[in-house]
């Protein structure tokens, strides 16, 4: 088993509980860790997961769906990735909301989930 990481995928989305978050939107950052079986010394795309297709799926969800909670967004992304890519044995998804409406100084807010194929 191996792991492929796609880190720092940035998209503009409209997630959040407050009405202005849905109206104005904000930047979201997604990190992915994909567990994929590495078979021998193969060197073909069919033996792994197409990163461009993974990116496209994440982009579609983050940009065109609306979730009130980043926890729900992370969970949906994990489920969607497992469903769309049968070669994945597991996935860890972290969704950052760097401009969360928190009254104070902070560096980052994120929600993370990990799922494996049953």
Automatic annotation (TrEMBL):
Keywords, sorted A to Z: Folate biosynthesis, Lyase
GO molecular function: dihydroneopterin aldolase activity
Keyword Secreted tagged: no
Matching InterPro entries: Dihydroneopterin_aldolase, FolB_dom, GTP-CH-I_C/QueF
Gene Ontology biological-process annotations: folic acid biosynthetic process; tetrahydrofolate biosynthetic process
The protein's Enzyme Commission number: 4.1.2.25
Cellular component annotations (GO), alphabetically ordered: cytoplasm
Top-level enzyme category: lyase
SMART domains named among the record's database cross-references: FolB
Keyword Transcription regulation among UniProt keywords: no
Involved pathway(s): Cofactor biosynthesis; tetrahydrofolate biosynthesis; 2-amino-4-hydroxy-6-hydroxymethyl-7,8-dihydropteridine diphosphate from 7,8-dihydroneopterin triphosphate: step 3/4
Family: Belongs to the DHNA family.
Protein name: 7,8-dihydroneopterin aldolase
């Amino acid at each position: 088993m191996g792991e492929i990481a796609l880190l720092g995928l940035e998209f503009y989305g409209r997630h959040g509980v407050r009405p202005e978050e849905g109206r104005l939107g904000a930047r979201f950052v997604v990190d992915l860790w994909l567990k994929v079986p590495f078979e021998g010394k193969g060197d073909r795309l069919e033996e792994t997961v197409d990163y461009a297709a993974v990116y496209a799926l994440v982009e579609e969800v983050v940009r065109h769906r609306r979730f009130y909670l980043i926890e729900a967004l992370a969970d949906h992304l994990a489920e969607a990735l497992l469903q769309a890519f049968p070669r994945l044995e597991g996935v860890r998804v972290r969704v950052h909301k760097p401009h969360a409406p928190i009254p104070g100084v902070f560096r980052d807010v994120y929600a993370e989930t990990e799922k494996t194929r049953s």
